[in-house]
Specification:
Elements: H1 2-16, H2 26-41, H3 62-68, H4 78-86, H5 88-97, H6 102-117, H7 123-128, H8 131-142, H9 146-156, H10 160-163
Amino acid sequence: MEDVEMLKAFLEALKIKGIPYNTKRFDSRLKIQKMVYIGQFFNISGLNNYEFNKYLRGPYSEKLAEDYYTIDNIKADPQKIEKFLNDKNFQKFVKLVKGKNGKWLAVAAEIIDLKLSLKSPPPKIRELFDEIKIIKMVSERKLVPKTYVESVLNELSNFEQFRKIF
């Protein structure tokens, strides 16, 4: 229950910041998946109990899916919402994702996932997956132009959390 309550508070804090959600819409649920994944990457407290696996549309958490189907019946705790709103990592996260569509979030999550999976491979393998190859792989997986992937990668590169993984 605690995870569901934290998820509800997270989503309500996002709503206050102008990032709405609607669990009845597939595109919104997909965005929730990607925002929680990216939020974990930003070390936002309260989101860490969701385990993500590789999936057709990028990182996906079954537990998160179960939880967002139940949050409409839960009242958000104002103190938990306030905790998110005052969290520096949450504020950086909002700066990154506000105004972004599902495609951008999916590409960003895929880039982060690829980079994290390559964080500590042997040097030879790491060399094989330079930025150009990552751009190509994400472009092919997400069926978007390489220039689009590059623009997402450039935006992510503005954040310290992202620069630390490479």
